[in-house]
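Notebook p. 47: complex prediction with ME8.
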Amino acid sequence: MAVPKRYYITTPIYYVNDVPHIGHAYTTLACDVLARFMRLDGYDVRFLTGTDEHGQKVEKAAGAAGIAPQAFTDRVSQNFRDLAKVMNYSNDDFIRTTELRHTKACQAIWKALLDAGDIYLGSYAGWYAVRDEAFYAESELVEGKAPTGADVEWVEEPSYFFKLSAWQDRLLQFYERNPDFVAPRSRRNEVISFVKGGLQDLSVSRTTFKWGVPVPGAPAHIMYVWLDALTNYITSVGYPDTKNDLYSKFWPANLHMVGKDILRFHAVYWPAFLMAAGLEPPRRVFAHGWWTSEGQKISKSLGNAIMPADLVQTYGIDQVRYFLLREVPFGQDGDFSRAAMIRRMNTDLANDFGNLVQRVLTQVNRNCDSAVPEHGEYTAADLAMLKPAHELVDRMRAQFREQAFHLALDAMWEVVSLANRYVDAHAPWALRKTDPARMATVLHVLVEVIRHLGILAQPVTPDAAARVLDQLGLGPDERGFDRLGIAHALAPGRPMPKPAPVFPRYAGEGEAAKG
Ligand code: ME8
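Predicted complex, structure tokens below:
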């Protein structure tokens, strides 16, 4: 039997203590592009994002805003839902940890851990960083602060513990058997050495504040916000009902996408919780890098957070989407600069891809009666142009499998450059009078190349790609990856609508020159 083509991808759920900035937009964008790619490739996809609304940090932020935590989270969570529209995300579910379905899932996993003998009552005395919502050992502190630079406070309270120490060997075996579980590879080594260094039992309940999921049977305790938050990934597929359709179709998740700051929670605690509860761990966790802004760390106190809506308004949605995934090798840290953004927008999109489409489709419109041109026999040069276009999907698939977005886009732009060189070399405009049949063949080859580029550009630049495909006259059922290849080449004579530019240049050229 064929393996069912299913794909479940998740973003971290974001704390609602703050409005979303470019860093949050980036993680969800990467997931959106993968989700779109897999859908076009025939997969049944589930793409989840949402907000992490419990814990001391959110409670404090609500206090500072002078409103009750629930009203505060309602307001800030909406900003993240609005972001989905601004950035054109295609998520299938948006989870809030204050929803009833989630409370039920949290309490069920708690009971499963308790029944398995992996939770016991004790008391915690140690350091806690509210900003990270994390406990730190004395030995981890650096000049009285958490290794992340967050302030720590001394906490002493009755607490339930998860027997994380008992999971060290099983986790190491799990990493051994699943070499692709943590990516990129350098992060995998980091996780393994952390676990080899020894694991302490983990405090999983708090008693000194109230904003959280109550521990079943122990109402003085609320669940530690990370146990609560991680559980969202199974809440969305219907846990604790593991027999339902969604759960059986989509769990284990194929990919949890996270920033490098929260890898430990996802690659150490989460598989341990799941295995202890008798559930399967996810297949893969990818930890991407961090963005700085014009060379500086993005922080609330510096006031330099880049707002996605501003960027989209200034440069355009697809320009921003393309830039974020093309500019920095995925997995590494990167710097956002307006000069670099404008360069990508003008060079890669407007000059290279945009011009290619514009000049080819304009010639078809003028010289081929606004219809797909007839083609004669292909020359070696024609075949050398078509082949890389036909093979592009395989190259991009391989890169997407590794979450190497920048390399997938590199591969695509190789074809774009090849096509621009092919236009120059074969100058179809000059053939109009001398050899109209050859002109038609050249334009046919180019229309096919553009059809492939348009279909494959959909995950990263969905609006612009849709406009390219509209201009080729493609119907909604002609845009999937199953339509790639010569077998589905456009029939000569099919009408093609009037072309219009797809990728504008940045209007404020002065700013580009400054960069
Ligand atoms: O950690 N560059 O939520 P959070 C790149 N609620 N990515 C960035 C970034 C930057 N400068 N700043 C933030 C939490 N991010 C928890 C997660 S999941 C069960 C619970 C992204 O609101 C990056 O993905 O602090 C990072 O991991 C995430 O936002 C942290 O979001």
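Notes: Residues 371 and 495 are 4 Å apart (CA to CA). The pocket of ME8 is lined by residues 12-15, 23-24, 26-27, 52, 229-230, 232, 258-259, 261-262, 290-291, 298 (CB under 6 Å).
Next step: compare against the earlier run before touching the bench.
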